[in-house]
Specification:
4 copies of one chain form a homotetramer.
Chain A (H helix, E strand, L loop, with lengths): L1 E3 L4 E5 L6 E7 L9 H11 L17 E4 L1 E2 L2 E2 L4 E6 L21 H8 L16 H17 L3 E9 L2 E2 L10 H5 L11 H16 L6 E8 L13 H9 L5 E6 L10 H4 L3 E4 L2 E4 L7 E2 L2 E2 L4 E7 L9 E5 L4 E5 L10 H20 L1
Antiparallel strand pairs in A: 1-2, 2-3, 3-7, 4-7, 5-6, 8-9, 8-10, 10-16, 11-16, 12-13, 14-15, 17-18
Helix pairs in contact in A: 1-3, 1-8, 3-8, 6-8
């Protein structure tokens, strides 16, 4: 349960309803000042209870740094973030031990770990485990920014409603940062309002919706990544698919590229301001597994939250009989808004690791 | 340039126009008989020069096993496959050193490696490097079949023309194997004929087309994979994005899931023949990063071949001036048919590694 | 700062005088009951303040498990041990920032990490970091014992005074366990008394002494390890040299083997009780990098504690001038007795990892 | 069977009597010119058949580079060295399948791999597998020399006869290189003559002798390595114990340090020529797991060759009965002289990896 980069590792630990969750970040250089305000700001974007569209569970999620920092500056030792679990109502999940929730980890986890599995609140499979990853990601984002590399994401689509995409060629740092400063991280607020309305509809119906997050990075040098298994796409996809509920990852034109002809998909090279760039950016900044200096563009598809209020068909494991399941806990009708800083964090960890 | 599994590693080596390419497979158990006929059959499916739709370059691609086998049986030592390069016309690529091909690795590789880079034929970024991976994959496929685990793939789409998809619930081993036994690996031969015609159109226009490969696996136990970075999606995506020209990877309903509601996407659980299964399979056999016993389903999007005969706009690196590029080598107008066994190989390597 | 096994990883974190130290143990199977009494017992053997021969610093070192256990049983999630630092007198070390202690990490750490290094109490280089490794080791020892594999160690030598060695051929589990049950872990109490006296002499002189720990393991299956870099010696030595102050590691006859002839060093094979064994065990249970079923025997040499009360010659980094150094903190005149459970823990982690 | 550094990996392959042995070196930068003469010179020092003290088996051991070099310069792709096996007389080893050689890998390898094991000539456990490691080491030595880092070794002891040690404080590059330029790599030719005579005595008696190799490195920067498992001792010992027949590894004063007092073992710091150095070097250049800028000193103990001409007691695996064994193949009465360049290669690979 570890992000294993070339230099950087992030060992995550914890279960949703255990004592604490956290992460040990190993491989950071000494001398990095951690801006706790910015770190807390990123974590708040992921935290539940921020708006009408999220779960009512409230976790202060105040990260405690128990190692690796001295006077707020990294000292070379591994940096450990600890987040105590407080507001966990395990009772909500009692019946789930016998009746696995459809499209959740419950059933395969039961087979994998046996009765010792701590499945309360999803246990180790809970989206809650992404909180320490955001703490690690926040540090990575700061260190990237110090290197003039910027990462930002927005909701590209919810319930089929598209946001305006990032400009693949002319994207500027301020456009990249803009969605993250809003309570609902989109480029077009009109699209955002429609999405919020679709989420509210789903909630009213006891249902849920999915969506897509688009993430971009600016300022990367040419040549990060490499051939075959060293390709940057492999590293990024591996980290992004670690986020619960992700069903697809694509770069540049992605699946649309499969329907294009080469003459329409290729990005012509040209010289601009003494640098070699491409006039279009269907590649999403990646050629041959390597950065080409253009904005890096990745899309991440999230399925609709599997926890819905509607009755569902499942089975009783003890009786091996059909059973109707009513999930009574508090759940997001859509995880996509809260997933935006998680996507940013994952991309930032991979890119920082490549740059170290 | 190494597939790094939990137990299994495949170290690939070689450049397109160097002395030899190959792979060292470390971590195979002793006592596995390698069926050379089946191995050669898989490699022929990937080899160029098989039909009108592929490049005219002909490589016998006869793999020589220089270590790890004694009397055709693995002895516990690493298995090394060596493939000599024979039919390489380096002259075709001479001008490319100065004028990078659009949407190829040329430009970032030049920056990354400097003038020492052996870019002939794409060098280490050539699709040719997937040949030894198919040799490794063929061994993995045999070992999986011994464990009653089956992997197969077909062309799901070329130039927007869809093949019939695999049956996500009722897929049988013989249906899985069927496309691979055809010269053009599709489920529906009618769709295949249309695709071939679209490829031929592109060739005639000096252009190229992309497509999608769908791969499935049957017979997997429940609980392979794990939480966060141990998820099977991460391992599979990392390996699949290592294939040149891949732009997207998705599982189950993939990007379509982002537009569904939870009630429509969740897979109800039920008991059938004393086993717990799901009545639908939108998850593609993966819940919480783990197999759930249903057919595993993954889609892989390939961009159109960037090497096209049409003139393209590029730059002269020496003069830092615009330059028109005419690529005169022999190239596939569509790599998708030859990519099918490569996708199978990658999936097989990941699954075998999880099972060892 | 991570023990990286094939299946098991132990990510250590913390600085001697930071908030907390600890470890995240990833890769343990679910369902293992952790015997906290035995764990605490092992940690007490390592803890300071146990006798006249150790430092006066007292750390309760009560490990808190903040993840991975539910009702004292491993649930499959990473197991995290947290130990708060309490009794740290940082003032003792204030002058050390400018005047590095001879034969300590101070000087190279200053160069490596720069002024951000948290060198209080040795920081991340402190022997205190072995406490969480003992917690991990205690779990490993329990799991090995469940598999009928036993690990034990004793002080083989202090200040040149030898203990009786373990019987290389006929060693029994009770003999292996005996030293660990004593307050001073030796086989021969007479030798132990002499060692204690030598330690006391050194303390009185403001000096320190070194020694050797011998560790053995019984019950290992034949064939653990492998060729070249997979050899068990490599894995064991890598873990053992991670213990601060270790200067040498040897197996079986070790450096003495270099002076023997083959006819005197080779271990003849014979059949006993239907099993193949060797009549002598100069190999220390390891042939060709693999276990051969005989008792595994390893010796670990520790240098004398570099922190001594005598005045020492050093330099002032700020003035680049000679400086006399008086170390006023509390220090062990001999770390060897407390190192015994650390050696056991390291060996246990490596062996468990091989067996998982 | 892979040297796994932080950046550099060397995947070794082959069996003693298979088609070929070799190595794939991944992670070398592009643009390194490989000096084939120096590489061949190093390999000749390891090759058998060089003098009266070595086995009569003659292998030309001409390394063929089949990938990674273009015009003798590394191109960024993995560098593959292939060495064909030629002069293997498998017949010599036929009886060994049933009667394992004492203190060889035969018996545990039989258990580990079963009947499929290719044990001819020691198979994958043969010292012959160190030949490709010397090819890799030769490249590492060249790259280190380009960085003004030098590695050299000599026979410190054979059959109890000591060579003059390297000067731990004042060692100069020319003294370091001197032994490697002799046919018998010692500092003192008088000691060398005695050693050769002891080897010849052992041969005449059908017996064998062991010894110690001392290796040093000059020019290393301060601060390589790190805390706990990142210590340079761990990395070096792990690589050195991978060499067949190694029984002990120690740094600086090694096991002797265990008998010293702190006041006698500590290395006083002083300022010389504006640099901080130590006036003695009992630490062997390593404090706290890190280089301190002084000469790095490591000792490696080799057991006597287990293959001796004298009759030995073993067992017949098929009959589970005692059996006398006469080994009739050609064997070194002492592997230590040929091990010297192997030790240099291992140390060079580890150091280069740390420096990359």
């Amino acid at each position: 349960m570890r992000f294993q980069g070339k230099k950087l590792t992030v060992q995550v630990f914890g279960q949703s309803h255990g004592e604490a969750i956290g992460a040990v970040i190993d491989g950071l250089p000494a001398g990095v000042r951690v801006d706790q305000e910015r770190l807390n700001a990123l974590m708040r974007r992921r935290a539940p209870g921020q708006g009408a569209h999220t779960t009512a569970r409230r976790e202060p999620d105040i990260p405690e740094f128990v190692s690796g920092l001295a006077d707020g500056i990294s000292c070379g030792a591994p940096v450990t973030v600890l987040i105590r679990n407080r507001d966990a109502r395990s009772g909500d999940y009692a019946s789930l031990r016998d009746i696995p929730r459809p499209s959740h980890a419950d059933w395969p986890a039961f087979v994998k770990y046996g009765p010792a599995h701590d499945g309360r609140g999803g246990g180790v499979f809970s989206g809650r485990l992404t909180a320490p990853l955001c703490a690690a990601g926040a540090i990575a984002l700061q260190m990237l920014a110090d290197r003039q590399v910027f990462v930002g994401a927005h909701i590209a689509e919810i319930a089929g409603i598209p946001d305006d995409p990032f400009d693949p060629v002319g994207l500027k740092p301020e456009d990249l940062a803009a969605p993250g400063q809003k309570s609902f991280p989109v480029c077009s607020d009109g699209a955002g309002a429609e999405m919020l309305s679709a989420i509210e509809d789903a909630r009213r119906d006891g249902d849920s919706v999915g969506g897509v997050v688009e993430c971009a990075s600016l300022g990367l040098p040419v040549g990060l990544g490499g051939p075959l298994f060293e390709g940057l796409e492999s590293a990024l996809a591996s980290a992004l698919f670690a986020i619960p509920a992700v069903r697809g990852v694509s770069f540049g034109k992605g699946f649309e590229a499969a329907r294009m002809r080469g003459s329409a998909h290729n990005d012509p090279l040209l010289v601009a301001d003494g640098r070699i760039v491409t006039s279009t950016n269907r590649a999403g900044g990646l050629q041959g597994g390597m950065t080409n200096g253009m904005p890096l563009l990745v899309n991440v598809a999230f399925k609709p939250t599997p926890s819905i209020a509607l009755p569902q068909r499942s089975v009783s494991l003890s009786r091996m009989q059909p059973a109707e399941l009513i999930i009574s806990g508090r759940h997001d009708p859509c995880v996509v808004p809260r997933a935006v800083p998680v996507v940013e964090s994952m991309v930032a960890l991979v890119l920082l690791d490549q740059l170290l």
